Amino acid sequence: MRRNGPLALIFHTIFVIVMVAPILVVCLVAFTPEGFLSLPTNGFSLRWFRAIANYPEFIHAFWVSLGLGALSSFVALLFAVPAALAIARYRFRGRDALAALFLSPLMIPHVVLGIAFLRFFTSVGLGGSFAALIIAHVIIVFPFALRLTLAAATGMDRTVEMAAVSLGAGGWTLFRRVTLPLILPGVISGWALAFIQSFDDLTMTVFLAAPGTETLPVRMFLYIQDNIDPLVTSVSACVIAVTMTALILLDRFYGLDRVLAGKGGDTGR
Amino acid sequence: MSMAAEERSVRAPWALTAPALMLFVGVLLIPLAMTVMLSFHDWGQYKGIEPVFILKNWHEIATDPYYAEMFWRTFRIAILTTLLTALLGAPEAYILNRMDGRWKSFFLLVILGPLLISVVARTLGWALLFGGNNGLVNKLLMSLGVMRSPIPFMFTETGMIIALAHVMMPFMVLSVWAALQRLDPQIENAAMSLGAGPVTIIRRIIMPQIMPGVLSGAIIVFSLSASAFATPAIIGGRRLKVAATLAYDEFLNTLNWPLGAAVATLLLVALVLIVVGSNALIERRYAEVFR
Prior knowledge:
The structure holds 2 protein chains of 2 kinds. In chain A, α3 packs parallel to α6, α3 (about 55-90) crosses α10 and α6 (about 130-155) crosses α8. The two termini of chain A are about 30 Å apart. Chain A has 12 helices and no strands. Helix content of chain A is about 75%, strand content about 0%. Chain B has a two-stranded antiparallel sheet. Chain B has one domain: Orthogonal Bundle (MetI-like fold). In chain B, β1 and β2 form a beta hairpin. Chain B starts with a helix and ends with a helix. The chains are: A mainly alpha, B mainly alpha. The interface between A and B is large, with 86 and 90 residues. Chain B: It holds the Pfam family BPD_transp_1. Chain B: Its main location: membrane.
């Protein structure tokens, strides 16, 4: 194959700079010693990270986001793992329709989901509650949990299961001791990707969150609406750090390129 | 297969998917149906929501030019964002694909990684870069001599399109990159050995083959941009409304839920029609590529 010419490399360099610049700028401004937004910034200080401590609503929102992401991803997996096993192993009528339904939260605009959930949970008396947030997040992270579990279940070596059955393993033992350990990397990656999606969601959550159940993106959004100052950049830098941690976890267990390229396929192990 | 095993293989998949199916019917399909119904309800400043069946909200959206303008703005921004991502993302994917193994996976990570970073944080980055007339972008463009006087990016459609294109770019690169993986590099060499120049190769060999990737990327980028909320809300401010931010306002500020539900329903229906329609078109046009 031919190599990239100088023009192509210049284009590539500018492209990468533009892609990284906004994220880099947020992280740089977070360390500014000034009391206002200044670019470029001189010096280095942690004052805006310390300032977060004076805003309990950001800290509270952080814990809400963390709990919501961890819990809703876990609950989503409780539903997604059996569904993924069924879709991976059986050819049955309605299989394609079910798969399409389970992936549909990817296609429906989050603003529409937010409205639908707001209407629904208000009318059943759960408006603004943490329970409502959990259920709504289970739905939006479900496709991610399902996809990675599905990839793992499709690529699994089923002779191991057959060996276990021939040795007398029954349904639950078979699942707990053989199937689950084999698909575990896919399940953990599904959890991590689902967590990131939940942790970062603004559009749907902004409709459901009430003062007490505001998540971090919602709190940041409402703050930015009023004014933009270095405080919100230091909070953003923390958010980016949490996402990066989850990304590294994802990369360790699964390989980030495979998650991003969505090509778990038959080698999902 | 014995009778019992056969029966089990009929029942087992349904038993395994039943919990998820019930969850989806209960808290996804029912709420969506309720939203469509809500759009036909009446609303008044003092009486609140009245559960009657009227076409008031739909009539208002159809006749008030404010909504036509808002939807036109929404789709204009989505179309321009899609064009921008295609024009820049497709060449980048091509360049990426020609790099050496290690550089390729490194830059793929750098370009696709932002996909998983908070949209609020990414948009905040653009707000910082744009920031007023002496923002960094303006300073840079003027010092490069691209333009003489600063142009406003904040609270303008230009700014919204640039920030949205940045948010959506990974989807386009990913989609084109996937198409490039299916491409046989020998075809390019064959064309070269037959005397084709680089321009001819790109135009006659590469372009036709990655077009399905560009188009399916375009569908994803378009539908996500048309329903985007965070970026238009932060960069566009309170004046420059798009469908998602308008629906948000109707729900959480004006409290006219039925009207907001009608806007959301219209957005959903329009997007489903556009996506399904263009998918069918692409599949017919490029049937041989998908085979």
